[in-house]
Records
---
Amino acid sequence: MNNPLQAKAKSIGITDSPELIDLEKPEQGLELHLGSNVFRNTNGVIKLQGKEQVVLELQPDPFTLLLTMDFYDDQGTRVGHIRRNALSAHSAARFTVTVKVGDETSPPSVAVTDRTTERTVFEACLIQKRKIRITVGHFNAHTGELVTVSPHYCRIGTGLTLFGNVAESRGGAATIG
């Protein structure tokens, strides 16, 4: 049989070892849930209207959800900054950060409350190994437009509402607007 189109079978040597080689897969990016929207394989950054405004990270020891975020007023002036759950000096009078360290029975979470309105302006929790749900959002983007996150949608101002979208971020930021 000298058929040039026929593939030749190659034999591969098999070792005598009964053990299988277990190659550990690298960690995938974070999956962010904003309302009913899912952003897969992100780097934890949420970019709102072209500017990186929110960063979420997981810290293994102690098991904590870390938040870095800028807060703006309705004119687009920065009024607060949180870096890895620590408020900047000028933000401490206006905002309160509540951090819940995770354990075997409960996941980690982080919440930010505006002291002037006593309203939770941002809240996020881990729902599975690399999945984070933003459960509450009521803050302004750098343009001054109100960003609202509810269990059902994510809205920026009056012009953009996301509902039930699934986006692949390919290791980059979750981009909205």
---
Amino acid sequence: MSLVVDFAHSAGTSGLTIYYTVEKSADGKYWDTSTDTFRTKGDITPGDEEISLPEDGDEAGRYLDTLVTSVAAQWTDGNYSCIIRNDSGDVLLAIHKKYLKTQEEVFFRLNEI
């Protein structure tokens, strides 16, 4: 299973340091990068719920990442949220997406509002 995050900054701003988190809406648990599981936020070491969103080398202001996990059982049918923040913690964008186990990939294709 993989989750693809494709974020285009509205002003085409390059050189940003940004991160994203993934939350399972059914139980409010966050993806923990140290264990590759969804866990209660209070049980996650601070920073382990943040995933770096690097800038695409071919297009200024576009940030791409693919979160690949072999723990498909962690991804149950349901709604997930992806929240993108800058290095100051400001929310740049939040989006919700439905995931079905029959999907090979989940895409969060995002444009800043």
---
Amino acid sequence: MDPWRAHALAWQRETAADRDHGHTASLLLHWLTGGWSDLETLDQARTVLDDPSDPRRKRLVKVIHELAIGTITWEAYARRTKKALIPRARAPLPVTETDATAIPLRSARRVFRDELAASGLSLSAPDTVGMWEVFQRFAHMPVAAPRGYVIRNDMCLTEWTASPDTTAEEGFAWSLVRQFSISDLQGNYERMEQLQLLLTYGPEAIATGTHHASFWSEDDLDNWARKVERTEAFALTTKASPRSATITHERV
């Protein structure tokens, strides 16, 4: 596994373990290292963090403090952390010919909805098994980044959690996510985007162990799907009728 993908998986696992802080910690690390995960850069990062007099450490600590007390917006954070604290010249990424069948990233949500409609499915009358099958098919479709950018990482996540705006006793949600990590042509991390299908269920579908189960696809979508389908949570979900279904596509 290449270091960039290993770094992305580490971020995903930390976020799953600590939803409140894992994602923020990963964003701060990206600011410090510029997204590089080689040993040389990580050693430089340790040197910066261990030196209270280093101006880069002071900038990092200042932003962490502002995040903690709520005096900085995420828009302001994005502007201030655009340039890595540890700069490094990058060789341009090789320009590959775009797959003629690739879906433009901006159209991914529409294409997914069209795939559902082509299978006789709709958000107003959701069907668990049918939507799962369509999501798997959609996950294999190539997607192209906007001009001037590349998709460095494309993986899927399935997760069972308490339904939005409810307690765990009132219902749960099944989230199906396709996540795109995007870089510019010099390899600089730009952003992450997630397309999510969220199905919600009532308490009749709840069982011990269902909540907060999650599975990342990593490199093998078919093996990931088989693992998901072997879980108790999947069996319970496919026997229940969804209360609602929504599709979103947003930056995270």
---
Amino acid sequence: MTLTKPRLSFAALAIAAVLSIGACATTGPMASDSYTTTTLLSAEAKQSLNARVAAFDRDMNRGNINAVIEYLPPKMIANLSEKVGADPEFIKAAAGAMLSGMTRNLKFSGRSDLSQALVGTAGNGMPYALVPGVANITAGKETMTTRGTNLALQDGGQWYLIGLSNEETLTDLRAAYPEFRGVPLPIRQR
């Protein structure tokens, strides 16, 4: 099978969903409100974000890779669906199957640290959170530990998470959510 640009984007999006690793880049005002003291999020928004991040961590630690796809922002799935010419539900199912195959012999453990999250607002005033975390990925007897950042954003009243792992992920995010075009977001440094 030849990997066209949409298929590569699909693979990058799927891998970003699992690895959720990052570091720092771009210009403009970075999220700076501490999650613990921010007034940018209501108590209800904080509670729902906390529940969503805890569920994500639980799914990752249980190896429930297919569930991780459900945390991806829907407009990113819709854009990819349009590029590939497939139904969004097919895209999610295919990404889940691909990730399950790629990670079959891997074990994941780790956690997100909301107490260290930074909160900011996107161009349209939408609040978002940059949630740091650590992941241990074990293959056989070897373990790799990575630190990174997930972007948490709300769409339709639901929190979604995307690992900020590379420039292509940021490009796809900003195409789907133009309000993030001027927002500096962390990405993985090589």
